[in-house]
Amino acid sequence: MQFTQGLHRAVQQTPHAVATVCQDRVHTFIELEDRVARLAGGLRTLGIGRGDRVCILALNSDRYLESYLALAWIGAVVNPANFRWSAAEISYSIQDSECVALIVDDQFAGHLAAIRNDCPTLRTVIHAGDGAVPDGAHSLDALVAGHAPIADLGIGGHELFGIFYTGGTTGAPKGVMLTHLNITSSALSLLAEGAFPDGAVGLHAAPMFHLAGMMMTTGLLLRGGQHVMLPMFRPESVIDLIESRQVTDLLLVPTMLQMLVDFPGIRSRNTASVQRLLYGASPVSEALLDRTMAALPTAALSQVYGMTEVSAVMTVLPPLMHTPEGRARNRLRAAGRASYHVQVKVVDGDDRELPRGEVGEIIARGPNVMQGYLNKPDATVAALRNGWMHSGDMGYMDTDGYVYIVDRLKDMIISGGENIYSVEVENAVARHPSVAAVAVIGIPCAEMGEKVHAAVVLRPGTSLTQDELYAHCKSLIAGYKCPRSLEIRASLPISGAGKVLKTELRKPHWENRERAVS
Amino acid sequence: MQFTQGLHRAVQQTPHAVATVCQDRVHTFIELEDRVARLAGGLRTLGIGRGDRVCILALNSDRYLESYLALAWIGAVVNPANFRWSAAEISYSIQDSECVALIVDDQFAGHLAAIRNDCPTLRTVIHAGDGAVPDGAHSLDALVAGHAPIADLGIGGHELFGIFYTGGTTGAPKGVMLTHLNITSSALSLLAEGAFPDGAVGLHAAPMFHLAGMMMTTGLLLRGGQHVMLPMFRPESVIDLIESRQVTDLLLVPTMLQMLVDFPGIRSRNTASVQRLLYGASPVSEALLDRTMAALPTAALSQVYGMTEVSAVMTVLPPLMHTPEGRARNRLRAAGRASYHVQVKVVDGDDRELPRGEVGEIIARGPNVMQGYLNKPDATVAALRNGWMHSGDMGYMDTDGYVYIVDRLKDMIISGGENIYSVEVENAVARHPSVAAVAVIGIPCAEMGEKVHAAVVLRPGTSLTQDELYAHCKSLIAGYKCPRSLEIRASLPISGAGKVLKTELRKPHWENRERAVS
User: Fold this and answer.
1) What letter would DSSP give residue A188?
2) In Å, how far are A20, A45, A53, A122, B364 from A152, measured between CA atoms?
3) Fewer CB atoms near the end CB (10 Å): N or C, chain B?
4) Domain regions of chain A by residue span
5) Is B280 helix (H, G, I), strand (E, B) or coil?
């Protein structure tokens, strides 16, 4: 399998169907293929070839998809940068992966001087924007216009597709090496799960640099669906595009989900075209799922649980488990069951499989598992020991194979010798009617080692005290798990992938101290 | 991906669901896993290990599936013998692939002496039957009972799963080498096409040694469906099992389809549980499809076109194209469109892609393409030239990517300088109300080189003359394509895979002569 395969199939079968919609630009599949084949010719003329690494730093757009395709076309390897990172962090990823070129849009052209200064290997800059072309850069549209189409080199399988950097805001960034087979096997398994069926119109609301977005990119491509591009997530823009483009398929990370379904007035808008909603990438409270089902009543919900290192897909919780039947079986709290392409187990510290119901680390094996972390042989060996990817997530499996995530290993709170899973506490806090969003962390405590601390964003016009929150939680979970302190915030710090950055929340509390788990 | 993956998934998710039904034996997935893990232990004790080749010569049964799984469990490579072959042909495949062991059932134990005599590498015989264990053989059930379960070695991906012999009755048999990834990628793509959905009860009516049967085996395993075993195809047995086991999914080759839907009284039986019918492996006339839809009105039909060398799946014609809408667009005559995992093209003799509508050779590329023919480097290089599998099938592609097979390259008739596709003539002949089955071949003709000859099986109580047939065909196709001679037969010679053996039909006409195309 190769990443460009879906484009070839769509050109063969539905050449005149709409492939991409971006602002006022609409391209059919045959037009997209023509642009990609010409851009590939342009890249080759610039001396970019098989195995060369190329960074993309851009908001979602049709040109982002064209860049992905054109790089794969000539066997170049993409480094899709997290645009929430600082220029220094992006420079690190460019240097670590020895990128020879950077594709940048208007939004991030301001980083150019700093990046050029930091990155001696970077010899080419391509501007994928509508504004003025920066000095010394090549215009992507001019490359398309100025070159004849070249043939796809047909590179795929075990060759590298991309290097995806993770963890930039939580510690040393690691470049996750993923092949064409890694990416496409996850996407094909999602299709077998029923994602993006024939006629799908998918909205790229999640950032395309992220593996969740990559699953929409690759899955939609394989099925031959339509890509509607949203440059930057805003709830009203999502609703506008649902209405104007009759979007059928959404893929959202939980923070986006929360902002969308709590957006005032969503119920007065016509979202009835939305047939399916994939969500994942971090834990979701049942309260938020309830609000989602109320706000988007036509959408069949599926959760996908995974991470960059497994090409985003480990387990899938199908729509049936989001119905009252699934809820009655406690399945709404599950992350789903192993998808078709991957094997999933819960193991102890010695990689022995645990009995069902016992909490351990979740590990996975399959064609979707990364080749390793670039330039990090020790981290690679640790993550892939015994041939399985060690997720760093703690969870258990029930008798029907449903996986329940209890926490990230490093987010687990150890208080008075008890393991407290922050996700369980968050679920309890989230059920309070005043709570719009919550993150629970451990903060230092002289007596207990750590104590439970809640950072909360309130819903408009509400209030909450520590005593009210404690009493609310006490009615739902054991007393030792209930928050001992409360911090009301205007927002939570969010990663580019929409995950709450608990390291950021912990930082002021832990200055000059070291956590037992990190 | 590994072949045993679906079993592990099913054991994890639905351990107590029925896995196999064979005669009066019923096993759940956890029972199947236990039997497989013990059989694997037994095989290991017999000295069979990773990379060793093992032949299976048996009718469909639960023990056939257990053998497939246990061999994959320890990394052995299977040679599933075509049981319609002579002992000499089977011995050839055993010698060519250097099998160290043979798994044989009651039906074929009679071949043992001859095979043992021919095959010096064969040191172990395992009896997978209910009758007396042949001298010197080990009982499969005793191996299961007498050994502790061993762990799956986890072998998959690019390691060899099996060597599948093709062409045994048409010329020198060739061993097609297929990996775990080859087999599972085709099966996963079929799932993405909607085959074998959750809750599927599949009937193994096609022989399990054949790649079509292998797709039901692997697809059902991946989805966790139920395997109902039919040892040998008989129409009334198929109907009995549909009724008694509430079969939802059928996979049939055209000759089986014809025998089933023309079986007297099928319409008085309850076949309403059948929701899906996959057919393929050789051309099907529209007339037969009409009778199929009338006889099995609840079944959504899909055609799968492929061959052993591409792990059975190249194109799929979905149910929609079997409706009046599809028929109006002439799609019922198509073999389908490229499935998700594979790229398909129609090319000229120099592998240049032809414009839509022009007839050329159909070629394919993807994770499903074989590694080559065992011990046949020249044939391998010829088949896989330029990295694409050359199917030997002639066809064209329409503007929507639908592939239409016009003939096997070697079945095409060249008459008076005109290319005549036997399939087109067969479609015309099949529309005559007296015709139950037909095969059209070229026979020697002093003036024209070849002339068109029809071998026909009549429907009960009907008759047909050459003049009547010619007049019928002349009303449908050009005169030069119409049969010049007619042969009424009780049956057509059929391969183990259910294909009509045109070489057998041609033989008496071509003795001591050489065809231009062969």
Assistant:
1) H
2) 20, 15, 18, 25, 15
3) C
4) 5-295, 412-510
5) strand
- Closest by Cβ to B13, choosing from A1, A191, A401: A401
The rounded distance, in Å, linking the Cα atoms of A423 and A407 is 6
Q: What is the pLDDT of residues B46-67, one digit of tens each?
A: 999 999 999 999 999 999 999 9
The amino acid at residue B304 is V
Look over chain A and give the mean of its residue pLDDT values, rounded to a whole number.
Answer: 93
CB proximity A14 to B under 8 Å: yes
**Token representation of residue B439:** 């095969």
Closest CA to B304 of B208, B387, B401, B189: B189
**Nearest-10 crossing angle of helices A5-13, A29-45:** 140
- The answer to whether the CB atoms of B9 and A340 lie below 8 A apart is yes
**Locate tokens 């200064």: which residue?**
A117
Instruction: Name the pTM for this structure.
Output: 0.88
Q: How far is CA A3 from the centre of its chain?
A: 18
The number of beta carbons lying within 10 Å of the beta carbon of residue B230 is 22
Q: How far is B338 from chain A (nearest CA, A)?
A: 7
Nearest to B61 by CA among B236, B269, B201, B204: B204
Q: What is the CATH number of domain A412-510?
A: 3.30.300.30
Q: In what order do the strands lie in the sheet with A315-317?
A: A25-28, A18-22, A226-229, A201-204, A249-252, A276-280, A300-305, A315-317, A337-338
Q: Do B338 and A154 touch (CB under 8 A)?
A: no
A223 touches chain B (CB under 8 A): yes
The pLDDT value given to residue A169: 45
Contacts of residue B427, defined as CB under 8 A and 6 or more positions apart, other chains included, come to B285, B286, B287, B333
Nearest CA in chain A to B8: A343
ipTM: 0.86
DSSP H helical ranges for B101-196 = 112-118, 140-146, 180-192
CATH architecture of A5-295: 3-Layer(aba) Sandwich (3.40)
**Structure-token match 């090409």, residue found:** A311
Cβ contacts (< 8 Å) between B154 and chain A: which residues?
A: 365, 387
Low-confidence ranges of chain A (pLDDT < 70): 168-172, 281-283, 496-498, 514, 516-518
Chain B positions in Cβ-Cβ contact with residue A15 (cut-off 8 Å)? 399
- Say if residues A123 and A115 touch (Cβ distance below 8 Å): no
pLDDT (tens digit per residue) in A328-387: 888 888 999 999 999 999 999 999 999 999 999 999 999 999 999 999 999 999 999 999
Q: How far is A8 from chain B (nearest CA, A)?
A: 8
Q: With a CB-CB cutoff of 8 Å, which residues 308-367 of chain B face chain A?
A: 337-338, 340-341, 343-344, 365-367
Query: CB-hemisphere CA count at 13 Å for A156?
Result: 20
